[in-house]
């Protein structure tokens, strides 16, 4: 059976949400390649695991990207997250660029602003040692939409933040079912999780974090001090 011939999904599915682990999801959208479900609790829209690319195909798709350390357009794009983050940081802060890719330009930009930045990427910088220490900030741009288990990964990152630290995320947000159907963001086969403002509000409650929508696709979560 081809994907275009697959039967339609029932309206209520026993497919666990990869963010909050809610056991039931509802049909949200389908295109020629994939189905999309929405969690009833946190509103995450996600692609069922049967449509995920195997690791070798996912890596091959990432290898097609042509971002470089000298790309001024890429620098302008990242500055939408970097500039407000730098404005929030104390001098000489230490952070982590999670999902930095093969050209960690964002880390360089933050280092140019006087901060120290460790690098981690599952394919290009797989250094687990950097995930075992505390940081003043963690930044992750255009990454969460690629995560098969965003709940576990975000909880792991949260555990690496010092009290008062910032988790800075950059990802496009789901606006409505109508706009989702023509959204360019879902055409990337490595994009499998789609957050909305509602989803981030749920996440902030779950993490007991202070939430700030810095821009339409830049979200800051601050870790509160205990007590």
From TrEMBL:
Give the matching InterPro entries.
SAM-dependent_MTases_sf (IPR029063)
Q: Which UniProt keyword terms apply here?
A: Methyltransferase, Transferase
Write out the GO MF terms.
Answer: methyltransferase activity
The processes (GO biological process) annotated in the record are:
methylation
Task: Output this protein's name.
Answer: Methyltransferase
Which organism's genome codes for this protein?
Answer: Microbulbifer thermotolerans
Taxonomic lineage per UniProt? Bacteria, Pseudomonadati, Pseudomonadota, Gammaproteobacteria, Cellvibrionales
